[in-house]
Amino acid sequence: MLPAGGILEQARKARDPRFDGRFFIAVRSTGIYCRPICPVKMPRAENVAFFESAAAASEAGYRPCLRCRPETAPGTPAWRGTSTTVTRALKLIHEGALDESNVTALSDRLGVTSRHLTRLFSQHLGASPNTVAQTRRLQFAKKLIDETRLAMTDVAMISGYGSVRRFNDHFQKTYGRTPGSLRKAQVISVGDVELKIAYRVPFHFDALLDFFRIRGIPGIEKVGDAYERSFFIDGQSGLLTVSDSGEGHLLCRVSGGSPRSLMSIVGRVRAMFDVDAVPEEISNVLSSDKSLRPLLKRAKGLRLPGAFDPFEVSVRAIVGQQVSVKGATTVMGRIADLYGSDTGHGRIFPDPHRLAELDPGALPMPRKRAAAIREMSSRVAEGNLRFDMDDDEFYEILVSVPGIGPWTAQYVAMRALADPDAFLHGDLVIKKVASELLGIDNEKALLARAEHWRPWRGYAGMYLWRYAAELSGTQ
Known about the structure:
Arc Repressor Mutant, subunit A, five-stranded antiparallel beta sheet, alpha+beta, DNA Methylphosphotriester Repair Domain
């Protein structure tokens, strides 16, 4: 539980949207927890308690408000925690690690005891790993009930409950009502599924589209006023479209695919479009650098472009070494043509097992670089390189691959691992901008200047890249 009063009380009274999702308000007299923007009658201060997460409020015995729907609040980024172990655990939980397993197995993957992991969660989140997982299931299920036409059986399975009985019991215990009673009309699962994904404003959606447009893999990705791509997850292909509603949320439309993959797809979209970022915190730090202030004003709400498929972006990082963005895109299209597969929803990018058999001489790129793709793919296929590893361990293994250097590893960290502090200080474009805009002409001095941008160096890099694009007339 967070301390009462101060800025939290001010934000509550003002119903300040900047704090939506950053904390939750529990009302002792009703046993309900709400978002700061909840439109209900303002409760008295002495009846209010503040929690950093929905899971913490749930752990304390409060149930979610049906009016403001806490499950639709912008997410809380994992990097807000001070524990690397907790951050990794949260990522695994949100990928479903506790849907078919237990805390002991999760702890083993993290290299700690279950008791220590539970203690860390209590310290940093105010809730146990199981409560976090249960809150995740409940929130996603409630979202599906409100926003889709999926049948309740499908909702239960997609949300990770494993059985309809567990699903019904959890809703009855939490809301005192059946899941079906929370929907006005019972309907069956038909057609596409479209979900809303909230973000904090400002959100520079067009800048993300600009970034993805020139890097879109031919035959797999298409970028116009929206982002579109084919995918293959859980044994089924599908088509994803992401657009901006202009009303504080993205619209994520999924055609085809396995119903069980829907939560995973939404998680990937959240990472790819960096919806959990807190632009106010980022701006407060970066604007302390006078040279960056004009860039922040011209492109408010710039986000880090993440990855729908971390492996795909890792291949892209290797391909992009010392070549133009356009040239790298051409090579990625060639890899997709030679090693990808066609489905009813479009071409899909080859998986690590397929590229582990890549012929270095078959691609229009240096053999050493192609061999690096093959070796990296082999390590991923064998499980020796995983995207859920500790960041330092991942970096160490990645740079040990012949042909992969610091620039590539930093690019992968920024996009595939969603590291907000990953900074490509060796990038030629960033070095050129640093010379013109900051008056810095060497990497050592650039790194020293970037210390003032922590922990948002990745965002600073995006602003420098965008500045260069503006000068050249491209994005």
